[in-house]
Amino acid sequence: MSMKLPNAKPKEWPKEWFDNDAFWKANYNFMFGDARAAAIKEDIPKLLALAPVKGKSVLDLCCGPGFFAVPLARMGYAVTGVDRTAFLLAKARARARAAKTAVTFVKMDMRDFVRPGLFDLIINMFTSFGYFDDKNEDAAVLKNMFASLKPGGACVIDVLGKEVLAGIFLPSSAEAMPDGTMIVQRREIFDNWSRIRVTWTIISKDAVESFPFHHTLYSGMELKDRMETAGFRDVKLYGSLGGVEYDRNASRLIAVGRKK
Question: How far apart are CA 223 and CA 227, in angstroms?
Answer without folding.
Answer: 6
